Amino acid sequence: MSTGSQIKFDGEGNTEPDSLAGDVVVVLETEDHPRFFREHSDLYYGMEVMLSESICGFNKTVQTLDNRYLSLKNKQGELIRPDDCRIIRGEGMPNHKNPYQRGDLIVKFKVIFPPDNFLNPSNRELLLSILPRPNSVADVNQDAEEVILEKFDHLEDRKQKHHRRQAEAYEESDGEEGPGRVQCAHQ
To answer: How far is residue 75 CA from its own chain's centroid?
Structure first.
């Protein structure tokens, strides 16, 4: 059941002499949970795993809403990529119409990468020897212009551009008459 759902108890309301009892109607309001997000009878859970765990495997524990513990283990050799999801059938919320039927628990993964420059040169070479070889050098056109990729925060960039546009709009509104400006007619 979700926010706004109603549960009606017929004839359970106040009664007065010589009148029928009224109904009691309970209107539900759901609250956010710090660990789970609900969508119908499915529960979503965000789990962080280190890059090494996403590649080599992990065994983690999740406490359910009914205070049980589930041991989560990914299949050996199966990588966890950023924003991947895995499902545990039947571990969600009970279905409103059939409480013995439950939704699913969906685990969404956030892969935590190590900090910049964490590898020394010898470990970098070792890692390159283990991982599949990149073919990026073969993909470079001889006439290509070399550029440097910079770190970029999409949300921060949008915020800065929004503030810049607001400032420009404010400066433009302080000027004299211009296109699109309306003036009152003098009589």
So the answer is: 24
